[in-house]
Design a protein that fits this description.
Distance between the termini: 18 Å
Number of domains: 3
Structural class: alpha/beta
Helix content: 40-55%
CATH topology of the largest domain: Rossmann fold
Strand content: 5-15%
Shape: globular
Radius of gyration: 21 Å
Number of helices: 20
CATH superfamily of the largest domain: HUPs
Order of helices and strands: EHEHEHHEHHHHHEHHHHHHHHEHEHHE
């Protein structure tokens, strides 16, 4: 069974995602679509609008066959680590022959040329970018300008200034770096840009959809029926992440004191004081981010750091994750066709596939060996994900009760 891989957040699943899914199948001539999807905290340092199981349900009902969770250690990360972790998940699953991603460029050749340049001139780029950062230039702007200079091609700058192109370049580099045989494919991003609020016909970005929801505007025209129905149910039952709850929970973590903050991933010397000072007077999540943000510290990075603070993410766990890559695969949902694919590709799998968390500890122990360092690293990665799930329940005003360790009680969803 030919399978194509998709790297996603589905926050929420909208008509643009449906187009990506259909075109990916077509380009790859694939029977099966496998999505690696971020869990409860996302690449830009925000909690997902609705939980990972509801977003899995949306994906399955739209025609995705297998949904795997991208662990927190990679999902809530900068583009290179996000991309590498997701590519490693697809590669480790086995049987996925192609990776298809959206891009503003819409064609592979210029992206591949730019990715090759980034690899070949990485030393010069690192030195030059560091010098620009010391002068207060943003990383993305500094890198784009240096690439244009080194390549002698101003068109390279455009490739490095739009979010989907940036991720596409990271996917290409990750495929090469891990020696994956997955074939890269790209399709043009339709309609509204990633950060644009304005819609184009029936296509709106996830950012635009979330803003419309915050303003009380209807969004059903921009989502497949099944997604719109599921989202409406979540809204009616107050099962949507609440920014006021997020703000209060993060403040509580910051108020533990600067000694605790200094142990959190990416809270560098001096930033602990900035976080503490901002927390004393902030009135909302947005206000807290604004008070912390400076020219050298982008909004996205601040948001990610606050997610690390909320989830008490240690530098040691994240450093180990960067070194090892994902150490298990969490199956959130699959269709009948997806189940057949997973069975057929089992011998090609290089990581344990976890469908039932009641056996997760024994599965990891058997795979890595008792008392091994790799087992300890896998358990730390798992614990971070479990903590993220527990904390996410605190963001839902209508949380219905039950055990907050939902990963242990939720069955794999079926399409």
């Amino acid at each position: 069974m030919r399978a194509v891989g998709l790297i996603t957040e589905y926050n929420p699943f909208h008509n643009g995602h449906l187009h990506h899914l259909r075109e990916s199948r077509k380009q790859a001539d694939a029977e099966v679509a496998v999505a690696v999807m971020s869990g409860h905290f996302l690449q830009r340092g925000e909690p997902a609008l609705v939980d990972k199981w509801r977003r899995t349900e949306m994906a399955l009902r739209a025609g995705v066959d297998v949904v795997l969770e991208l662990p927190f250690a990679f999902a809530c990360q900068s583009a290179p680590y996000f991309a590498r972790g997701a590519v490693q998940c697809l590669n480790a699953l086995g049987g996925v022959e192609a990776l298809c991603f959206g891009s503003e460029a819409g064609e592979l050749e210029p992206l591949q040329r730019c990715a090759d340049l980034l690899q070949q001139r990485q030393g010069e780029l690192a030195v030059g970018t560091a010098a620009q950062l010391r002068q207060g230039v943003h990383y993305a702007d500094a890198r784009a300008a240096l690439v244009a200079t080194l390549s002698g091609d101003d068109r390279m700058t455009a490739l490095l200034q739009t979010p989907n192109n940036i991720l596409a370049l990271e996917y290409l580099q990750a495929l090469r770096d891990i020696g994956s045989s997955m074939k890269p494919l790209t399709i043009p991003r339709l309609g509204a840009g990633y950060h644009e609020v304005a819609a184009t016909g029936s296509i709106a970005s996830a950012t635009g959809i979330r803003q419309r929801l915050a303003e009380g505007q209807p969004v059903a025209d921009f989502l497949p029926f099944a997604s719109a129905d599921s989202l409406q149910q979540a809204l009616a039952n107050k099962l949507v992440a609440d920014p006021d709850s997020l703000h209060r929970l993060v403040l509580g973590q910051i108020f533990r004191g600067r000694d605790a903050l200094q142990k959190v991933y990416q809270v560098e010397q001096g930033l602990d004081r900035r976080l503490a000072d901002a927390a004393l007077e902030s009135t909302s999540w947005e206000d807290l981010v604004d008070r912390i943000k400076v020219r050298q510290l982008t909004r996205t990075r601040v948001q990610r750091i606050l997610c690390y603070v909320l989830n008490d993410v240690s530098s040691a766990v994240m450093a180990a994750a960067r070194e090892t890559g994902p150490l298990y695969l969490h199956l959130l949902g699959c269709s009948d066709r997806g189940r057949r694919f997973l069975s057929a590709s089992r011998r090609q799998r290089s990581l344990p596939l976890i469908a039932n968390f009641s056996r997760v500890y024994s599965t990891l122990k058997r795979f890595y060996g008792p008392n091994s360092e790799r087992l300890s690293q896998a358990l730390a990665m798992l614990e971070l994900n479990l903590r993220a799930t527990r904390n996410y329940t605190l963001l839902l005003p209508g949380w219905p009760g039950g055990n907050r360790n939902r990963d242990f009680f939720q069955e794999v969803l079926t399409g």
